[in-house]
Design a protein that fits this description.
It is a single chain. The protein is of the alpha+beta class. Among the domains are: 76 residues, Antifreeze-like/N-acetylneuraminic acid synthase C-terminal domain (Type Iii Antifreeze Protein Isoform Hplc 12, Alpha-Beta Complex), CATH 3.90.1210; 122 residues, no CATH class. Helices cover 19% and strands 29% of the residues. It contains five helices and eleven strands. It has a five-stranded antiparallel sheet with strand order 5-8-7-6-9. The longest helix is centred in the first third of the chain and has 25 residues. It is elongated and about 165 Å long.
Amino acid sequence: MSPIRIIILLLALVAAGGAALLVSRMSQPQIVTETVTRDNTIIEKEQVSEIKVLTARRDFNIGERIMADDLEWSVWPEKGVVEGQFVETKAPGAIEEVTGAVVKMPIYKLEPVMPQRIVKRGEAGLLPVLMAADMRAMSVGITPESASGGFILPNDRVDLILTYEQTPTPTNGLQSSRTVAQTILQNVRVLAIDQAYAPAAGETEESNRIGQTATLEVTPEEAELVALSQNRGELSLALRPLDEMAVTSPRKPRLEINGGEDEGGAVTIIRNSEPTLTAMGGN
């Protein structure tokens, strides 16, 4: 074989080998190496001072009595403490001080106990605190029969019904009498049953509480009407539903004492030694 042919053959072999190597490298996946430089971020944390304040361990309704087991010291941010809160470092005996107090505004679980929401032992009576402005507390005697079987609880709303014997009137020369029942007040709030200002723990509207006295929240004029009605006959309490209509419905005082059913009625009330004739007719 001539030297020229040998050289051409060798060049062809080298070219074929180079082509094979190029194809082999192109068929393999490419790995890209990327260098990422990240800046170091420094986070500064502010130190928050903590303090312990007196909180409730459960929800409290108006009139409930606070016991020692109902209170606990809870961690609270020092900047979140407001004036009046019981702080452990300033009032370490607050639990004993608050024990026995009665709630006059609702307190919720884990909420700080505020002096404005409770009446402590030895302070002013609770009943005036629970009453709205310009209202009066009037007590009436009750029985299971006259108080919805004992299902009326404090803060319920009731109607007052008076039952009495109407004065006999001549009818065809004969004397006749009849028993009359009238609703004299509507939508009256019950402040207490006996000396209980609120339902007991776990007591619901289905609970039964037998009492002898119901204390009602009435206006001064209604208090006079209730006092007069108790001397006139027997008062019964009719329980109202606890819905929006029951709370917002207007009162409708009504009592027929002087005059018959058709004539309407009037009540003579003495104010400042002067008699006042107050009409109580209508429905």
